[in-house]
Model the fold of this input.
Amino acid sequence: MQLNERPAHELLDQMAKGQTTAEAITTACLEAIGRFDPHVKAFLHVDGDHALEQARAIDGKRQRGEPLGKLAGIPVAVKDVLCTRGRPTTCGSKMLEKFIPPYDAHVIERLKQADAILIGKTNMDEFAMGSSTENSAFFPTRNPWDLSRIPGGSSGGSAAAVAASEAPLSLGTDTGGSIRQPAAMCGIVGLKPTYGRVSRYGLVAFASSLDQVGPFTHDVEDAALLLEVIAGHDPKDSTSVDQPVPNYRAALERPVAPLTIGVAKEFFGEGLDAEVEMALMLALEAFTKQGAAIKSISLPHSQYAVAVYYIVATAEASSNLARYDGVHYGFRTAHYDSLIHMYSRSRGLGFGKEVKRRIMLGTYALSSGYYDAYYVRALKVRRLIKQDYDRAFAECDVIIGPTAPTAAFRAGEKMANPLSMYLSDIYTISCNLAGIAGLSLPCGFTKSGLPIGLHLQVPPFEEEKLLRIARMYERATDWHMRRPAIQT
Done:
């Protein structure tokens, strides 16, 4: 493997042994960005000169024997929905095209404290609303395994950056599958932590009760490493839980035994691709060879998850995005006749089609006469979905299923049919509604060479168990070691 293709934990070992430097690693990543990103288009903003300055500073600290952070010298790409002080944060939207935050998000502060190198900001569906990274106001991102296909979304840029070996680590956000679905589509590991495990301070909100920040990595050990850095209590986020952060890496090599795997019958409904189903069956077989027991379970209310999600999420989006009015900050039209005209024209031109669709859906669900019929009822069904998980976890340690119903689809294939696009997240949405932890890792490829993702879900704050179970599978396979041959 080339230097930029190696996982972060290997690069840290090499730097500790004096076999490479932070500057060499950063240079290799920047060269990969220069070579591949004109085709993949994972990045909205690359901070090459500053990244090299950071790398040289880390190398200097290492040479002087000074204390170093857990990610010292490792380049990290960041989804452009997380505020970075003095650097653009656009959310993939014309509305925030010129926004430069005056502060860092909490997770960015944690990365800096860990001596990570912030290499750039990645493309995304506008305001994290999408499943294909085709809704960016600037350009679509492509899948490194097949440039004619989408990388998933909304964190498609962060997933593609790692898959293309343009950065060994990246951060994304997950509201209904926006880390796990692109991880599956791009053949890498993506982890959505428990709601409250990672601070949302400085994350530009889409749906506040669902959003969570998490890592994209080449393998499970890197996911454990990055989660250790970003997890933990933050008094600036009222939803952040004050609970100790385990040493995820230290526990990683201990298999979970005895292990009972729950498989929900609802995972095998209409729309599940046959190749994805076969990969799932083979993955379960790999677990049984390691002594795991498979138990049939049911998540009966999961059939309502998509409907519930697109009421709750759009209602919260309607509220959160009301602040973009062309007055305080963000895009303001140059031509208007009155204050109301300025509001409507600024929002009409500043937001893209999908964002406007979701704002309208959410505003309708919250409007007088419909609030109880839609929003309140959706919250009640959300509670039933959470209770389904509680009952299931009383019988099993982990619930395993497909991350997405298909492998990556072709660019433009679903843009004319929003409902078809929404169903791309049918297996991941329930995890967010329940507030539990979920992880996707590669479990095979289709005959046409496209990655397939395996989805693991565990009870709240059991990320240590989640990572250990994922590592059990990873030890038995080599899917995580494969890299795409990008056609430039």
User: Anything to note?
Assistant: The first strand starts at residue 43 and ends at 46. The two ends are 19 Å apart (CA to CA). The CA atoms of residues 166 and 173 lie 19 Å apart.
